[in-house]
Each structure stands twice: as C-alpha cells, then as structure tokens.
Amino acid sequence: MSRVNRTTASQSLSVSLTVGLYGTAFGAASIAAGFSVLQTCLLSLLTFSGASQFAVVGVMGAGGSAIAGIATASLLGVRNMLYALRMAPLLKVSGLRKVIAAQVTIDESTGVALSQEKLGTTAMKQGFWLTGVGVYIFWNIFTLLGALGAKAMGNPSAWGLDAAVPAAFLGLVWPRLTNKLERALAVCALVLAVLLSPVLSAGLPIISTVVLAVIFGWKVRR
C-alpha cells in the first residue's frame, strides 16, 4: 500500500467535510416533505446522490407521484454513469470493490481524482477513494442529524424548512453555471418549469426541461 499523498488527503478531507455538511439540509428537507427519519436515512445510504435525493423529496413532497420522483432523480443521476466510464479504466476494480466504487462515483470523488492527474495515477486513485468514502460517511452522518433536528422541531414547515429543497437545488446548480450557454439553459429551464407548473402534475415540469437540454446540446454540436 503506497503512502497517501498529503496534498491529496488534505483536498479530499476538505471536500468530504464540506459536502457532507450539506447532508443536514437534505435531512431537514426530507422531514419537511413528509418522509420519516428511517426513509430519509435510507435514501442517503442507498441512493447517495445529492441532487437525485433532493429531487425525490421535492417532487413527492409537492404531491407528485413516486414514478415522477424516481424519473426526475434518474435523469439527474445519468451524469454518474458518465463519471463511471471515465473512472473505470483508472480504478480497474472487480468484485465487491467494483460495487463500492459504483456507489461512491459522484461529482466530488471524480473531480478530486481528476484534479490529482499531475501527481500521478496513484494520487488520482487515492483522491477518488478518500473523497468518495469520506463524503459517504459525512453525508450520512449529517443526514441523520438534520433529520433528527427537523423532527424535534415538530412542524418543519412552520420553520420554513420546506424551502430547503429549492434552496438546495440553487446551491447545487449555481457553481456549475460557468458560461453564457449554461446560464441561458438554466434560465430557459426555469421559465419552462414555471409555465408548466399550473398545467402538469408535480415533477413533470422538471422532467420536461430535459427537452431544452437536448436542444441546447444539439446546437452546441452543430
């Protein structure tokens, strides 16, 4: 076992703790949406994809069906499949390690791994595992704390916690809008979802914005 690069370990811990703390918001939002503490914790343990988890509780909390919630979460989770394609040749794992790697293949683990490229393949692998496992541990711990805290408040909506889902989505999306095209797509998606909300049931307006992503992507390719 090679020694862990200090720079890699430091960056992984920083990302893991920062992102993990965000699990508190999910725990509170889930309780505000009507989920139990157990259901909330299982979503973090088994799904482990922040945006997808917020999508499920947001859609179902607004009265949408389970199918609409799952569909929205699945669309948001597609990017993890692309990350897996990038990470597979680097990690070269099999058996149980492959299952674990699939579970912790997220934005942060992939991002930290790729950022270590200048330090070599070993540092990239260390960055992936340290960040992925670190976020998983902290995310689940703070999900439980957030859920228990919201539960202790009685009626979470009375404290404004029902606004946690849209606020969380804004926090997730905002740092990723790095150019004019992405900002334009975000604004168009927002307008379309708002216009369709009075017409379609909860969850469907968000799913419909996928059409915009396809159109924008097609224009970029041309």
Write up what this structure looks like.
Helices cover 76% and strands 0% of the residues. The protein is mainly α and 222 residues long.
Count of DSSP strands: 0
Classify the helix fraction into a percent range: over 70%
User: Strand content of the residues, in percent?
Assistant: under 5%
Structural class: mainly alpha
Query: How large is the count of helical segments?
Result: 12
Distance N to C terminus: 47 Å
- On the 0 to 100 scale, the average pLDDT is 83
- Return Rg in Å: 18 Å
Q: Categorize the overall geometry.
A: globular
Could you state the order of secondary-structure elements as H and E? HHHHHHHHHHHH
Largest sheet: number of strands, sense, barrel closure: none
Stretches where pLDDT is under 50 for at least 5 consecutive residues are none
Write the topology of this structure.
Layout: H1 6-21, H2 23-32, H3 37-47, H4 50-61, H5 66-91, H6 95-103, H7 107-115, H8 121-152, H9 164-173, H10 180-196, H11 204-208, H12 210-221
Helix pairs in contact: 1-8, 2-3, 2-4, 2-8, 3-8, 4-5, 4-9, 7-8, 10-12
Feature tags:
222 residues; mainly alpha; 12 helices; globular
Quick description:
This protein has 222 residues and is mainly alpha-helical. The protein is built from 12 helices and no strands.
